[in-house]
Design goal:
Blueprint (H helix, E strand, L loop, with lengths): L2 E5 L7 H12 L3 E3 H10 L3 H12 L5 H12 L7 E5 L5 H13 L4 E8 L2 H9 L1 E4 L5 E3 L18 E2 L6 H15 L1 H8 L3 E5 L4 H15 L1
The structure holds adenosine-5'-diphosphate (ADP) (2 copies).
C-alpha cells in the first residue's frame, strides 16, 4: 500500500524545510502545492494565471483548481509509493477530496504531523525567508543562512524573497490559516492521525521528533 503523509502547520511553521529533509529519509516525493502554483506562474500557464491574484493577496486559490492540480500530480508514476504533502489540504473540502482520491489510488492518509509554532515566531520566519528560484529550497537570513548569501546550497540557483512574504501579505496569510485551515486539526485529530510536534525547536530537533513519530506510524 502507498504511504501518504500530510504536513500541517501555519505558514512559516517549517513544513517545506522539514519536507525537504524527511522526503529523502522516507524516500517519498515532496509535493508542495505552493511550489506547483509558483512553477505554473513562472511558466505562465493558464493555471498560473488563474492562481496569481489569489496568491498575491495571500488568499487561498479556489478548491476546484487546487484539487484538480493535486490529483494530476499524485497520479504520476513517481507517487506510486505515496507522497509527502506540504500545503495541501488547506480546507475541509480539500481534505475530503484527498480522502476520496487516495481511496482510488488504494491508499489513505497514514499520518498528519502538525508542526506547532506561535504566531509571533511566524512573522519573523516568513519575512526573513529566502527561496530558491529553481526548486523552492528554503533558507532564513538568520536562522538557516545559505553558505553563500543569495545562492542555494542545493542547486546553486538564485535565492529571492517571495512577494507574499512581505509583512502586509504575511498578516493576511496567517489570518486565512486560522479561518480556513485550523478546522483540519480537528478533522485529523478525530481520525486519530494527528501527531503534534513542537516547531519552535531548532530545525534538527524538529526533524528528529518528526521522524521518530512517523517511524511508529508508517
Ligand atoms: P512553511 O513551509 O511551513 O511555510 P518554511 O519551511 O518555508 O515554512 O520555513 C519558514 C522560514 O523559517 C524559512 O526561512 C526557514 O528557513 C525558517 N525555519 C524553518 N524551520 C525553522 C526552525 N525550526 N527554526 C528556525 N527557523 C526555521
Ligand atoms: P507557505 O509555505 O508559506 O505556507 P505556500 O507556498 O504553501 O505557503 O502557499 C503559498 C500560496 O499558494 C498560498 O497563500 C495560497 O495562495 C496558495 N496555495 C498553496 N496551497 C494551497 C492550497 N492547498 N489551497 C489553496 N491555495 C493554496
Amino acid at each position: 500500500m502507498p504511504t501518504y503523509v500530510v504536513l500541517l502547520g501555519p505558514p512559516g511553521a517549517g513544513k517545506g524545510t522539514q519536507a525537504q529533509i524527511i522526503s529523502k529519509t522516507m524516500d517519498l516525493p515532496h509535493i508542495s502545492s505552493g511550489d506547483i502554483f509558483r512553477e505554473n506562474m513562472k511558466n505562465q500557464t493558464e493555471l498560473g494565471r488563474q492562481a496569481k491574484g489569489y496568491m498575491d493577496r495571500g488568499e487561498l486559490v479556489p478548491d476546484d483548481l487546487t484539487i484538480a492540480m493535486i490529483r494530476e500530480r499524485l497520479s504520476r508514476p513517481d507517487c506510486a509509493r505515496g507522497a509527502l504533502l506540504d500545503g495541501f489540504p488547506r480546507t475541509p473540502p480539500q481534505a475530503q477530496a484527498l480522502d476520496g482520491m487516495l481511496a482510488e489510488f488504494n491508499g489513505r492518509v497514514n499520518a498528519v504531523p502538525y508542526i506547532k509554532v506561535s504566531e509571533n515566531v511566524l512573522i519573523e520566519r516568513l519575512t526573513g525567508r529566502w527561496t530558491c528560484r529553481a526548486q523552492g529550497h528554503v533558507f532564513h537570513e538568520k536562522f538557516n543562512p545559505p553558505e553563500k548569501p543569495g545562492v542555494c546550497d542545493y542547486d546553486g540557483s538564485e535565492l529571492y524573497q517571495r512577494d507574499d512574504d512581505k509583512a502586509e501579505t504575511v498578516a493576511n496569510r496567517i489570518k486565512v490559516y486560522f479561518a480556513q485551515t485550523m478546522p483540519l486539526i480537528d478533522y485529523y485529530q478525530k481520525a486519530g492521525l494527528l501527531i503534534e510536534v513542537d516547531g519552535a525547536q531548532p530545525i534538527e530537533k524538529v526533524t528528529a521528533d518528526l521522524l521518530e513519530a512517523l517511524q511508529a506510524r508508517t
